[in-house]
UniProtKB/TrEMBL annotation:
It comes from Neoaquamicrobium sediminum. GO terms for molecular function: ATP binding. Keywords: ATP-binding, Nucleotide-binding, Transport. This is ABC transporter ATP-binding protein. It comes from the Bacteria. InterPro entries: AAA+_ATPase, ABC_transporter-like_ATP-bd, ABC_transporter-like_CS, ABC_transpr_LolD-like, MacB-like_ATP-bd, P-loop_NTPase. Pfam families: ABC_tran. PANTHER family: ABC TRANSPORTER ABCH.1 (PTHR24220:SF86), IMPORT ATP-BINDING PROTEIN (PTHR24220). CDD domains: ABC_MJ0796_LolCDE_FtsE. The keyword Protein biosynthesis does not apply.
Length: 235
């Protein structure tokens, strides 16, 4: 893959559900390019196509037609198992609900993706500790989710997402369950991971103040991109 190859591309991407009169176009001919190191926020009202596009970006779904390129290959043409391999190797996920195992420690939660990869125990623990330190949770490694605040739980979830050193972080409403102060803490953390580590981030949010942290805001309406604006243009 050439260095200037975009990380991710949509070329005339459609996603259609149902048939006949019940047919719905969740995405209707979307063109999108995301390059390495970008921080992109995806916005739009309910039913606009933002969640559908996120699922395709994260290799959780495939287009009905059109091309979803990821790292220079047609990810939409891969079978389920090969898409899973791509996802597990290159993409980290952060969700609104944290999705932590309740009876396990922060470190054990962060180790989970490494277990799936077959990484040996000692190396797993070392990498988990490094990831937790990156998100500012030194000293909390042995705490269970119930012993952590919502913001700290989301930091554990981010550590779990970055412990495999992914190329792309997909964040779906990452601050949706947090108060204003914790929201800004999490967004400052994501911004620093993008700026200092070069981590590419694609984030779905319905909050304009959260989207404002991104370098670029892509807004969906009725399955199409209504606007695609770099932050410098909005200043």
């Amino acid at each position: 893959m050439m260095a200037d190859t975009p990380l991710l591309t949509f070329r005339d991407v459609w996603k259609t559900y149902g048939t006949g009169e019940a047919q719905v176009h969740a995405l209707a001919g979307v063109d999108l390019t995301i390059r390495r190191g970008e921080f992109v926020a995806i916005m739009g009202p309910s039913g606009s196509g933002k969640s559908t596009s996120m699922n395709i970006i994260g290799c959780l779904d495939t287009p009905t037609r059109g091309v979803h390129g990821f790292l220079g290959i047609d990810a939409g043409a891969l079978d389920r198992s090969r898409r899973a391999m791509l996802r597990n190797r290159y993409i980290g996920f952060v969700f609104q609900g944290y999705n932590l195992l309740p009876r396990t420690t922060a470190a054990e939660n962060v180790e989970l993706p490494l277990i799936y990869r077959g990484v040996p125990g000692r190396e797993r623990r070392e990498l988990a500790m490094q990831a937790l330190a990156q998100v500012g949770l030194q000293g909390r490694e042995s705490h269970t989710p119930a012993e952590l605040s919502g913001g700290q739980q989301q930091r554990v979830a981010i550590a779990r997402a970055i412990v495999t050193q992914p190329t792309l972080l997909v964040a779906d409403e990452p601050t949706g369950n947090l108060d204003t102060a914790r929201t800004h803490e999490i967004m400052d953390l994501l911004t620093s991971l993008n700026a200092e580590k070069g981590l590419t981030i694609v984030m779905v949010t319905h909050e304009a103040d959260v989207a404002a942290y991104a370098d670029r805001i892509v807004s969906f309406v009725d399955g199409k991109i209504a606007s695609d604006t770099a932050r410098m243009e909005t200043a």
